[in-house]
Amino acid sequence: MAGRGLLLASLVLSCFLLPCYGTGLFSSLQRTLEVTASPTSGQALRAGVDKITVTWGLNQTLPAGTDSTYKAIKVKLCYAPISQVDRAWRKTEDHLNKDRTCQFKIVARPYNSANKTAQSLEWTVEPDVPTATYFIRAYAFNAEEKEVAYGQTTDAHKTTNLFQIEAISGRHTTMDICSICFSAFSVVSLFGFFYNEKRKAKGSR
Ligand SMILES: *[C@@H]1O[C@H](CO)[C@@H](O)[C@H](O)[C@H]1NC(C)=O
Ligand SMILES: *[C@@H]1O[C@H](CO)[C@@H](O)[C@H](O)[C@H]1NC(C)=O
Predict the structure, then answer these.
(1) Considering 53, 90, 140, 205, which has the largest number of Cβ atoms within 10 A of its Cβ?
(2) Which range is the signal sequence, renumbered to this chain (predicted)?
(3) Quick check: is 10 in a domain?
């Protein structure tokens, strides 16, 4: 019993000491994917309302077979460096599994290297996306689910084709009011229920 506890504790501990995350480095990835998105440079989109059309595929100028190891694609919404000034945690981390600049998953799909048609998707900006400047990046994964390549809508220095997303203003206020209304409603209906039960009990006596 104690032995098992110790084993569990050391397993948990080793997760902190050793990297439990993969070892993929962004700097080791090849930029072979071509990714485009509908927002124009500087366009402001509203979270929870506006849509983005994303298109991705292998850069067609590369030799055939470049993508022979690609098995899946993940498309993500990423913070652009403008917000690094006040939010250091948005800085790109070379260890891919620790990187928090691309937090919002748009889609994950299997990759078919035989299909040369660029894939595309229309995505409504999720309501919880905070106000900031963004771009879109796609990662290609191999059979071991390790990142092997990428592509993005901006240049290597993340300075071109950036767009804005504006969070829904007053969203929290609305949600708070809703939850107050809801709890008031629950209390009232609870009292109503007990009152009713009491009356029924009286009536049956
Ligand atoms: C596609 O590949 C060519 C040749 O490597 C490169 O010059 C070009 O910039 C690439 N296009 C994109 C969008 O990455
Ligand atoms: C290739 O991809 C396109 C776009 O997603 C799709 O419409 C088409 O059916 C695919 N073709 C094959 C042979 O899988």
Answers:
(1) 140
(2) 1-22
(3) no
Are the C-beta atoms of 72 and 66 separated by less than 8 Å? no
- Residue nearest (by alpha carbon) to ligand 1 atom 13: 34
Comparison of pLDDT for 99 and 13, the residue scoring more:
99
- Give kind and range of the element (H or E) at residue 108: strand 104-110
Mind listing the pLDDT tens digit for each residue in 63-109? 989 999 999 999 999 998 754 555 555 567 888 888 888 999 999 99
DSSP class of residue 19 equals T
Cα gap 161→121, rounded to integer Å: 19
CB-defined site of ligand 2, < 6 Å: 112, 115, 117, 119
> Is 197 a domain residue?
no
Residue 139 CA, ligand 1 centroid: distance in Å: 16
Tally of domains in the chain: 1
Range of the domain at 71: 17-171
Pocket residue to mutate for ligand 2, from 115, 116, 119, 120, most atoms within 8 A of Cβ: 115
**Residue 63 in domain:** yes
Q: Which of 95-104, 164-173, 182-191 has the lowest mean pLDDT?
A: 182-191
Does ligand 1 come within 6 angstroms of the Cβ of 61? Answer: yes
Name the closest-CA residue to atom 7, ligand 1. 61
